């Protein structure tokens, strides 16, 4: 269990000792649940978000705006954005960001299916919501070039986080916050 | 010394014992430096930033754009923004934010002198750079209403901080990052 993310040697030992003490049925139920999850959960054919069905719940949802696609690198980002309850469009999960150092090029990501989606449907806006890092910037700019012939391409704002104090913000965040300033309405 | 910010009983004791062990001249020099600083450092007459002169170095600097004023709540924010080396205009230090709970209304801040500056000079843009909190928002909107008749009023961007992971951002920051999205250039 040490190989699980966030589980070090101590936690692994605690988990193992806990399971050994539980009744057999409980451990069997957990093992079965893990196998079932692994078997049943796959990727949505349309947006590549995790899904137990061939097409995920968000893609099938009739009330969600089909003209807007929010591009993220990972399914965890979909979950984070859904928690805001602000976004009502669809998603596209890339499965990572372009990172030549790690051997991840555009062909390892779901970029081709994204281009296909955007070129074949009437998409009004693609919102790129990728975390700001060198690889994230590269991926955003690359996607921008590919998608701009088909639709409007926007990216999420970078700046001061909520509850953040100007005084404690790092220089790059402050510089981006200044650069990204907008007219007060 | 316990009353100084960041100095609790333990640190106060450590500082006191340290000073007692130092030669007399050292302690006298420190005491004199404190008195001198208190006596010599005041507020700039124009922007209310800390200054040893009647008008501060930034206000007097001939290369700084006199048509742009960045409004901050505190002198510490000026120092933070100067570190970015991105901003080349002037400042205005409010001396706090509007906070009725703490008995701070507009008249306790340097808002009147700011209005006078903006109405009497040719100011092209006022950038409001106030940390996002309930009081900060109130102050920003209040200033926007007062200043908009005279000039363009902008505010710094709120969103994902640099190096921030989408997945770990709080909901309000993510919602603001989505809302503040801009077209990819």
TrEMBL record, chains A, B:
The keyword Transmembrane does not apply. Transmembrane segments: none annotated. HAMAP family: RecR. Residues 67-161 form the Toprim domain. It comes from Planktothrix tepida PCC 9214. It comes from the Bacteria. May play a role in DNA repair. It seems to be involved in an RecBC-independent recombinational process of DNA repair. It may act with RecF and RecO. This is Recombination protein RecR. Keywords: DNA damage, DNA recombination, DNA repair, Metal-binding, Zinc, Zinc-finger. SUPFAM superfamilies: Recombination protein RecR. CDD domains: TOPRIM_recR. The gene is recR. A zinc finger (C4-type) spans 44-59. One of its GO terms (biological process) is DNA repair. Belongs to the RecR family. One of its GO terms (molecular function) is DNA binding.
């Amino acid at each position: 269990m040490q190989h699980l993310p966030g589980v070090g040697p101590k936690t692994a030992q605690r988990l193992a000792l806990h399971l050994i003490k539980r009744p057999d049925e409980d451990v069997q139920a957990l093992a079965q649940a893990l196998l079932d999850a692994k078997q049943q959960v796959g990727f949505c054919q349309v947006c590549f978000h995790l899904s137990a069905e061939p097409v995920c719940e968000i893609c099938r949802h009739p009330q969600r705006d089909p003209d807007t696609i929010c591009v993220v690198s990972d399914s965890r980002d979909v979950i984070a954005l859904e928690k805001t309850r602000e976004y009502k469009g669809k998603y596209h999960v890339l499965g990572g960001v372009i990172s030549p150092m790690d051997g991840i090029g555009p062909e390892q990501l779901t970029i081709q299916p994204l281009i296909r989606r955007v070129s074949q449907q009437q998409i009004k806006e693609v919102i790129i919501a990728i975390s700001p890092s060198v690889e994230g910037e590269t991926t955003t700019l690359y996607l921008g070039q590919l998608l701009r012939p088909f639709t409007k391409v926007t990216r999420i704002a970078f700046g001061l986080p909520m509850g953040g104090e100007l005084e404690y913000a790092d220089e790059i965040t402050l510089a981006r916050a200044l650069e990204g300033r907008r007219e007060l309405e």
